[in-house]
Amino acid sequence: MNRRRMNKFAFLALCALFFAGTAAAKPGDTAKGKEIYDKRCTWCHGAEGDGAGAAKDMLNPPPRDFTSGNYKIKSSSFEDMAPNDDDIFRMIRDGMPGTSMPGWSDVLKEQDIWDLVAYVKTFAGYDEPPAAQVDFGTRIASSGESIAKGRKLYEEGDRCVECHGKSGKGSASKRLKGDAGERTWPRNLTKPWTFIGSSDPKDIFARLSTGIAGTEMPSFADPRSRKKLSIEERWHVANYVASLARTGRKVDAENTVIKADKVEGDLPGTPDDARWEKSTPSTFYLVPQLIAEERFFTPANDTLTVRALYNDKMIAMLLEWDDRTRSIPGDEAAEKLADAPIAEDGVAVQLPVTLPKGMEKPYFGMGDAKHAVNIWHWKSGAKGSTESIDLANSRGFREIEKRDAAGLKAKASYSDGTWKVLITRPLTTSSPDKDIQFTEGGFIPVAFAAWDGSNGEKGSKHTMTTWYWLLLKPATGTRPLVAALMIMGLFAGGLLWWARSAKPAA
Ligand code: HEC
Ligand code: HEC
Q1: Quick check: CB of 96 below 6 Å from ligand 1?
Q2: CA 359 to centroid of chain Cα atoms
Q3: Domain check: are 267 and 389 in the same one?
Q4: Same domain for 236 and 308?
Q5: What is residue 234's DSSP assignment?
Q6: 72 Cβ inside 6 Å of ligand 2
Q7: Which of the four, 19, 118, 217, 377, has the lowest number of CB atoms within 10 Å?
Q8: How many angstroms is it from 227 CA to the middle of ligand 2?
């Protein structure tokens, strides 16, 4: 064989390898897998694979104990505990949303992941591939008719409602736990981007067929279950579940500005006023507060949706978030569901007292010595007491001054797993040195915090967002020139913000 032919041969071999794709499981090397595992995975999963890594007590769900043999996401039959190699590969590559299990595709090569698959399986002694697979039959495409059938099956005989609730938000009043004794929550089916095994109807079909090992989510393919569903029925339910998505409440990382529209006449007086539907929602991630004592790592609220409107006198903000439990201290039913002791649910808005020059923002956590912030703190009330809103000024965590909240008002509604809190305040107040004064057209920094009192969240134990912007959009229409100037201003403002945030932190 001459050199040219050999090169051609090597090239073809490489092509064949490349086009083989990622679908087929590749044999992994357990010894190499162990090396990578010992470096990357023990902190959570433990050196013995028993889930007892150093981070164990900080995480819910806890890191998987691989010796249990439980795999949540699998495409093998419900009767077989062992997953397919592809299933494990996918979880390691993509991670599991809403849990601390990260995806490794940026860090590890494909072969590294196959080596890990081979090694991780040894903890449960899975050396044979599973005997039977999920039977997908013939996929039924989504349609109005299929969704209607799915809905009936979902609600019938308390099949899914028992845990996921009628609206799918997982707010049913039932306490669930996992095999390790940890508290678990049914998934909020209206947020399919939080599914650990993807929200493609085919994946939902697989979850309905296998159940989720180690949790109370059952298999509906099991003929012994009184709730069992045929293949056809499982497709209808999968199509129905996929239809529950409220994509308007998904976080859009590009959106950092809450746009308040100006209204003529009165502002909406209640959180459920239909006029809110017309205003633009912005949804932000809530992350656990990790800066001040006391830190916490197991939050229950994940996102917050904000809308704002104003007229010539007042500003109104509507804060909306899914919270599975209405936390009423002193209420027996609420206490049964909670991880006692129960505290009030709450939400807070943080605004700088004086508008920063340019696009500078106050320090992330409750202001700092030079930059005081206003904190509007709403609490849901206890048994026999009503909701309340407090005003405080703060310069960091230790310097907090309680103030008279005159002029600041709140009104909330809780229904079906969702809190909506309407907060109003006059645009200007009589103490401009202590209160933010709202003006049209400028970018106002704003941040939020939330508390789930049934999850032990109280005081500095809460979730929070980073700083975003609030913009009171001037009314447009009659004066096109003003509108054009405003758009230019917005553009310049946006650029300035971008330029500043692109700079490395000082
Ligand atoms: C920061 C903590 C953390 C690290 C680091 C971590 N994991 Fe995980 N992992 C978890 C948690 C938590 C779960 C359980 C999620 C759940 O139950 O929903 C999990 C679950 C898994 C599962 C189970 C998938 C299933 O279908 O049930 C596999 C496999 C896995 N991890 C592999 C790995 C490997 C391999 C590494 C190292 C490359 C690793 N993990 C590193 C936290 C971690
Ligand atoms: C006994 C309680 C219970 C019942 C009944 C139940 N589920 Fe679940 N379901 C759960 C729990 C708990 C989880 C979350 C498991 C976890 O922690 O990963 C879950 C998770 C899910 C998920 C998320 C899958 C993913 O990839 O993350 C879907 C979809 C789902 N359930 C659909 C359904 C449907 C549809 C029904 C009825 C046919 C149903 N469930 C019935 C408890 C239940």
Answers
A1: yes
A2: 28
A3: yes
A4: no
A5: H
A6: yes
A7: 19
A8: 13
